[in-house]
Design a protein that fits this description.
The chain has helices at residues 15-18, 28-34, 42-46, 54-66, 85-88, 91-103, 105-119, and strands at residues 40-41, 70-75, 78-83. The protein has 129 residues and is mostly helical.
Length: 129
């Protein structure tokens, strides 16, 4: 039996949520990470992706399915999502992007704070990156 996804898999200030390298929509990379260990139900995905509304998560899943990165399988009253071979091939570039973000995390935060200070932004919002 697979382990449940931890609620703190993507901490609000985790480098993975600050990654400036976008793949798909805003949440696609995190969805792919959630599916790395095998198929998951929608409710399982909601645990670490609790900041994502159900509507937006559904849109992200549909987009990934449309692009051929995951499959959606109806099993009785439940639906499971699973990475395809193409989706799995995204794991290596995602790992590289995450490693880059971790190496440059402090620099990115400093740059964002400086930018916000110059432009009068109220500051960084974890929900919007």
């Amino acid at each position: 039996m697979r382990q449940p996804l931890p609620a703190d898999m993507f901490d609000e200030v985790c480098p993975s949520t600050l990654n400036p390298i976008r793949f798909g929509d805003k949440w696609a990379a995190l969805v792919v990470r959630c599916l790395e260990q095998g198929p998951r139900r929608f409710s399982e995905l909601r645990v670490p992706l609790r900041r994502v509304t159900p509507k937006v998560l559904t849109q992200s899943l549909r987009s990934l399915e449309r692009d051929g990165l995951l499959t959606r399988t109806v099993i009785g009253p439940h639906v499971e999502y699973e990475l395809t071979a193409v989706g799995r091939s995204m794991l290596e570039p995602l790992t590289a992007a995450c490693a880059w973000t971790e190496r440059h995390f402090d620099e990115m935060l400093d740059s964002r704070e400086a930018y916000d200070g110059r432009t009068g932004n109220s500051g960084w919002d974890a929900a919007t990156g």
